[in-house]
Amino acid sequence: MPQVCIGEKSDERAAVHELSIAESLLGILVEEARNHGIIRIRKVKLQIGELAAVVPESLAFCFELVSRDTIAQGSEIEVENVRIIAQCLRCDKSFEVEEQVFLCPECGGADIELISGRELCVSSIEGETGE
Amino acid sequence: MAQIKVPVVRNILQANERLAAENRRKFDDAGIYVLNLMSSPGAGKTSLLEKTIEGLAGRIGIAVIEGDLQSSYDAERIQSKGIQAVQINTDGGCHLDGNMIQIALDSLDLSEVDLLIIENVGNLVCPAEFNLGEHDKVMVLSVAEGDDKPLKYPLMFQICSVLLVNKIDLLPYTDCDMNKIRERARQLNANQKIFEISCRTGEGFAPWLSWIEEKVSGHKKLQRAKN
């Protein structure tokens, strides 16, 4: 029977998904640092939406592990929480989603577009250049 | 040594998003409709698959990708129904991602397949963040888990087009309130289709099977029109 064992094929042994997210984050940071001539990363700002299934503390902990012996070792992670904002497709009203109710408070419409709240982004990197 | 701050706006999951988009193109080119099936462990994903396969046998070509931390038990259960199945062992990983699906697709013959169902790792949190290239996300919630689950795992309920409430034959023995599940799910995602089923008794399966058949034929028509 075809069987694919990921753990043997790669190093992916993520007991929490924050670990694989931390690895992706590190990859982006190393690439961006290289593009901008940064040889030591000191601070990283992230945007995490309130709807994202990510625990910031867990992400920071995993990042500390995966960034050891890299140019990002010891860097500070600052998280900006992004509120859940939706727009009603029926009456166009934009509203903040509170108490997990994704219904338009104006017209009760259920067809909504999520404007923000699922972010999982890097917004800035601070560090030292070699110059 | 100079200090600099550079603005970077990049999605941390962009690598997975790219792979998911590649998978999606592959599925669409082959005219295959794909479901990403998620739930907590023990909610009944594999039993649902077995019953769904039995219900659709002979009418729709089905293949299955099974995701589990360990063992090939689930894929064997599916194969015993005469269905192509490939098992992914994540070896501790809590979710499937786009890359794992690409690897698994190499082991499947997609030529006779209309419907691919990917059974994700049992978990209501992590799989929600990782697109696989599927057309719809489907979740199973068993009544034994309780009616508070929509409150605790909002993202999962928010992103799934279908909620299958399983084990309804156990309702008399639990404190689970179906009205609370319906109302809480409606607040999170009012367009979500809800099917109340029992894999054990087969109750409620007809509307679920019709939903899949409509989706598969609709997808085929759409892809034919595009080509």
Keywords:
heterodimer, A: 131 residues, alpha+beta, hypothetical protein PF0899 fold, three-stranded mixed sheet, three-stranded antiparallel sheet, 7 strands, 26% helix, 34% strand, B: 227 residues, alpha/beta, Rossmann fold, seven-stranded parallel sheet, 8 helices, 8 strands, 38% helix, globular
Write the layout of secondary structure elements.
The complex is a heterodimer of chains A (131) and B (227).
Chain A: E1 3-5, H1 6-9, H2 17-35, E2 38-49, H3 56-66, E3 76-82, E4 85-88, E5 94-96, E6 112-116, E7 120-129
Parallel strand pairs in A: 2-3
Antiparallel strand pairs in A: 2-7, 4-5, 4-6
Helix pairs in contact in A: 2-3
Chain B: E1 3-11, H1 14-29, E2 33-39, H2 45-56, E3 62-68, H3 73-79, E4 84-89, H4 98-105, E5 115-119, E6 136-142, H5 149-152, H6 154-159, E7 162-166, H7 178-188, E8 193-196, H8 205-226
Parallel strand pairs in B: 2-5, 2-6, 3-4, 3-5, 6-7, 7-8
Helix pairs in contact in B: 1-4, 2-8
